[in-house]
């Protein structure tokens, strides 16, 4: 007799990341054995993998199975928003077939600069900019600031510049502070995150 125990049915990940969609079945062998495990994408009823073979022209899709393991894992690399949807694992045995559906949700993180798209400041005042990364399931590897395409760093001769970055916050943030603003501090400021499109603001 073949039996299976359901597990988690939903999975979330950042766009551009990599997801391992597991079979979510605990296979218990008694008198029957699994003949083939197939992964199907419901959106177009496309067979992605069957056994150890991939049947997708998109090489981002593949199967992972360790020798001797009962786990057949669908691996999707460099995920995109269009990968979102329902995936089904179908198990064929000598006694019949079984299926289980997994819902995959792909989240697209976004970088936002408070006050964008433009900010007007007085000469001699302090420029305070905050870059916030929203909807990021995993923290970005970095958050950098650029002024007119040049990276802002601490060893600039201008002085009076500080950057405070917290990547472990629920919504990762980076705060840029520039004291005693002058005309040379005007222009475009861009926040660059490892997992989002850049966000920009113009200072006048």
UniProtKB/TrEMBL annotation:
Coiled coil: none
Domain (Ig-like) ranges: 1-91, 109-202
Taxonomic lineage from the root: Eukaryota, Metazoa, Ecdysozoa, Arthropoda, Crustacea
The protein's name: Neural cell adhesion molecule 2
GO cellular component, one term: neuron projection membrane
Pfam families xref list: Ig_3
Alphabetical GO biological process terms: synapse organization
UniProt cross-references to InterPro entries, sorted A to Z: Ig-like_dom, Ig-like_dom_sf, Ig-like_fold, Ig_sub, Ig_sub2, Zig-8
């Amino acid at each position: 007799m073949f039996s299976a125990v359901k597990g988690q049915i939903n999975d979330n990940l950042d766009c551009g990341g990599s997801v391992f969609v597991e079979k979510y079945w605990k296979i218990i062998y008694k008198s029957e054995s699994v003949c083939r495990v197939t992964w199907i994408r419901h959106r177009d009823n496309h067979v992605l993998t069957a056994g150890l073979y991939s049947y997708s022209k998109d090489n981002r899709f593949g199967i992972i199975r360790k020798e001797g393991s009962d786990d057949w894992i669908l691996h999707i690399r460099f995920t995109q928003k269009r990968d979102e949807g329902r995936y089904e694992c179908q198990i064929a045995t000598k006694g019949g077939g079984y299926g289980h559906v997994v819902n995959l949700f792909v989240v697209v993180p976004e970088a936002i600069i408070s006050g964008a798209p433009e900010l007007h400041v007085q000469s001699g005042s302090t420029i305070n900019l905050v870059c916030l990364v929203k909807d990021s399931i995993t923290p970005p590897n970095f958050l950098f600031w650029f002024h007119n395409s040049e990276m802002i760093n601490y060893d600039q001769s201008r002085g009076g510049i500080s950057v405070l970055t917290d990547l472990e916050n629920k919504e990762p943030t980076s705060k840029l502070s520039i004291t005693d603003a002058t005309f040379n501090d005007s222009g475009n400021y861009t926040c660059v995150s490892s997992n989002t499109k850049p966000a920009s603001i113009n200072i006048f």
